[in-house]
Each structure stands twice: as structure tokens, then as C-alpha cells.
Amino acid sequence: MSSRFKAVLFDHDGTLVDSEAVHHALWNQVLQPYGVEIPRDVYMQHYSGVPALANGEDVRQRYGLSPSAEALAEAKNSAAAVYLQTHAFPLMLGVRESLARLNAAGLRKGVVTGARMFAIAATLRSHAMAPEFEVVVSADEVVHSKPAPDCYLLALQQMGLQASEAVAFEDTEHGVASAIAAGVACVAIPTPMSAAQDFSAATVVVQDMAAAVDWVLKRG
Which segments within the chain are labelled E, that is strand? Predict the structure, then answer.
């Protein structure tokens, strides 16, 4: 099969790895001393796929907390770093098979995420996947994380690609907005944690990664 695309750019949390339930639990761990617990439906609607700093600001305003957004985000990132010292986020279903299909088709691959680099590094190390990806762009490399387009624009620059030559795989509304704002076609793959979000801006919405790869390979 041939494809008009030259590269696939993967989101991390909820796309490559099944991590959002852990992130939800870690946020509630951080907020426990303040007597706050984020309900699952609220997390799914407002926090899934959103960078920690933006979530920190939302938590501060929503629950009337005194710590700064920066302090809350740093506490969450510290909790995640501790977790990842002894655990690894499991891969989403079909990831390895999908990577193999993209490799066979000669497509280049990168990771573009609003997560911190330590989290992506833990995934690549734990699952021996570092050789799969040509570039990794995290929130650490840009001033404005998703839903701004900066991370996708940086990945395109590093890979020497035009926006029309890449396609993004994303599982959240914020991720879709980031890719589309950068001019990158975006295949949305909603998960149970993000299904209630608005995916109307996506180029196409599919049920799983296998279907996402099918769509890419059919774009001849």
C-alpha cells in the first residue's frame, strides 16, 4: 500500500500508552490534603489529555485552592515521576502491530505530546521502543503546549516535513486542536476516558489504532 503521508506523529498518553486512569489517580493523590477529589466524569470531560500546568490552573479555580497552578502541576509531575520509577504505563491495544504496519509501508514516526519528557522516556525505555521514533517532542521543548500548535510545528521542523506530509494520532480534543492548528491532518482515536469530548475538528474519527493505520494507508 502507498500513502500520501510521509510520517505519523503519535500522541503519548491515551494514544501510545493507557495512562489516563493513573493520571486521574495521581491528581487525586495530590489533592487529597486539600480535601478535594476529582470525579471520574469531571476528569474525563475537562482534564484528560490536558498538560499538567493547565490542569493545575483549572483545579485551582474549580475547587478554590490556594496553591498556584505551577505548584499543583509540579506536585503532580513529581508524583508521576515517582510512579514511573517502579511502574510503566501499558501500551494501548494494537500499538506494536500498528508500528510494524507503518514500518512496512516506509512511513516515518515521531512522538508529539503535552507530557513531560521523563514520562515519554520511561515508556520508550520500559517497552524498548526508542528506535521506533525519529523525533520526540514533549512539553519541555515548547513554551506553549497543546492545544497550541507549537509541539507539532517543532516536530515538522525537526523532521524537515511540510504539514501536509504528516498525520497525527490523537485521543483528546486538546490534542486534535493542536494538530489541526499546525495544519496537520488528525485521526482521532477516542478512549473511554476521552469519549465525551468534542472531536468535530478531527480529520476523521476511528475506533482504534488499527483503523487509524487503515485510514492512513488508504490515503494514496
Answer: 7-10, 108-112, 135-137, 166-170, 185-188, 204-205
Cell of 92: 494501548
Question: What DSSP designation does 17 have?
Answer: B
pLDDT digits (tens, 9 = 90+) for 97-150: 999 999 999 999 999 999 999 999 999 999 999 999 999 999 999 999 999 999
Of the chain, the end-to-end C-alpha distance in Å amounts to 8
Residue 103 and residue 92: Cα distance in Å, rounded?
A: 18
Q: Quote the DSSP letter at residue 92.
A: P
pTM of the model: 0.88
DSSP 146: T
Quick one: which of 219, 201, 217 has its CA closest to 209?
217
The answer to whether the peptide bond before residue 33 is cis (omega within 30 degrees of 0) is no
**Which residues lie closer than 8 Å to 166 by C-beta, 6 or more apart?**
5, 6, 7, 8, 9, 152, 155, 156, 159, 184, 185
What DSSP state is assigned to residue 89? P
